[in-house]
Amino acid sequence: MPEVLLAWGMTSFTPQPGDFGLTQIDGAVGWMVKVGQWLNGDGFHDWQHAFIYVGDGQIIESAPGGARGALLSQYMVEDTVVWSSGAFDLTEDQREDIVFSATRYLGTPYSAATYFSLATARLGIRPRWLKNLVSDTNAMICSQYVDQCYHDAGVRLFTDGRIPGDVTPGDLARRIGAA
């Protein structure tokens, strides 16, 4: 795998299994994610998609058809990718657990309801049933998928009291200093 650059540190590195990446999405889907992030108070960000590197040039990502494996190279052609590498001091066991969780959730449906839930939370009107729907791991958006895999490995990306699932790509970008 070729070395890539960290956007926030501009240091050459090779991603390690368990690192997460953030990238842009072109077209209508990217625009909808940007609007969803804006509606929930996140603002407009350059990062609309998150995935987990599992090794050998492979990633696992949450997608509208369900979580799936894909080639990292599909995002390395023209898109910019920022990485979590170096932002967290992960042990080899944690990295293995993150990758294991990512593979365990393969096929998990995408949850557009998460953006609706985040927007209602911003307005202070989110009902309990909606909180429960979002905190369930039966359907997840890409950033929720990353957060859940890290959580399963014992790594807490956020300790601010948010409910499980209240994570956007913009949240992950801020967490690693890329927003």
Record keyword descriptors for this entry.
179 residues; alpha+beta; two-stranded antiparallel sheet; globular; endopeptidase fold (from Nostoc punctiforme); 7 helices
Write up this protein.
- Helix content is 37%, strand content 15%.
- The chain is of the alpha+beta class.
- The chain has one domain (4-175): endopeptidase domain like (from Nostoc punctiforme) (endopeptidase fold (from Nostoc punctiforme)).
- The strands form two sheets. Strands 6-5-4-3-7 form a five-stranded antiparallel beta sheet.
- A hairpin with a 6-residue loop joins strand 5 and strand 6 (68-71).
- The protein is globular.
Describe the SSE topology.
Elements: E1 4-5, E2 12-13, E3 20-23, H1 27-39, E4 49-55, E5 58-61, E6 68-71, H2 73-76, E7 81-83, H3 92-104, H4 113-123, H5 128-135, H6 142-152, H7 169-175
Antiparallel strand pairs: 1-2, 3-4, 3-7, 4-5, 5-6
Short précis:
This protein is an alpha+beta fold and 179 residues long.
Distance between the termini: 26 Å
Count helical runs. Answer: 7
Radius of gyration, taken over Cα atoms and rounded to an integer in Å: 15 Å
CATH topology: endopeptidase fold (from Nostoc punctiforme)
> CATH homologous superfamily - what is it?
endopeptidase domain like (from Nostoc punctiforme)
Low-confidence stretches: 1-11
Overall mean confidence score, pLDDT: 82
Number of distinct beta strands: 7
Order of helices and strands: EEEHEEEHEHHHHH
Structural class: alpha+beta
CATH architecture: Alpha-Beta Complex
Helix content: 25-40%
Briefly, what CATH class? Alpha Beta
Principal-axes geometry comes out as globular
| Major sheet summary line | 5 strands, antiparallel
In percent terms, what proportion of residues is strand? 5-15%
